[in-house]
């Protein structure tokens, strides 16, 4: 009897060890699954382990919904410090064939390019932590997400995104830009702006951002609306393609001349860089935008000296 009692005790001790081991393995498994939040001040993803309440979820749909809700509300634990961006404008989500489909509302179009990238990266990395999810498809309302040039983005996988630093090259190099603003005569005048860039051969976005900020001189006027947004800007083989957001019918434009000055302040500022010879302009990813009878965004724009002041030409 005594021997049987000892065996029974040893058996229960062994069970306790096994269960303790299983619990340790479960905790280890959960701690390896993370939420990724986008820090808007550093342009990086910061992570934290999924909390204990997540382990109680059994349904895959509920797990996806939980992660999206936490990210949508920028709801982090007190241990993770980051500067949150705007709330994610997500209307619905679903799962099919190991891919999550997310539908954004039209409010997504109002986000900056960096906010859009950070938001998508946060969702893709967090959802791909789930062992039943490989990637994410994005829609705006019922329209599949496309690039500025109209190319379908398709399913986004973690391997498509630089997780650690979305902007790996901070702007540290001093550089001088030639930016054009309007004078009282309605002509363009060059103003030099001292900035810091990460790559002197890729300053397109910085030029546009300086135009949005406006002139330093009190004698010059801005040529683009202050609420204009830069969605994309890049140069290939001497042709700079930009995608901007603004209201073509804005009261900022008092006449067609104002619209012409906007276009050619952009074009002449960009073509001041030796690597840029021509400019293609998209408005919210589209070129068939009604602006003026003389300006067709389906055209490719070249530098025009006709809009530059004579004093500037002879200086």
From TrEMBL:
Protein name (Swiss-Prot/TrEMBL): GerMN domain-containing protein
Superkingdom of this protein's organism: Bacteria
SMART domains: Germane
PROSITE patterns assigned: PROKAR_LIPOPROTEIN
GerMN domain: residues covered: 64-149, 204-292
Transmembrane domains' residue ranges: none
Organism in which the protein naturally occurs: Candidatus Cellulosilyticum pullistercoris
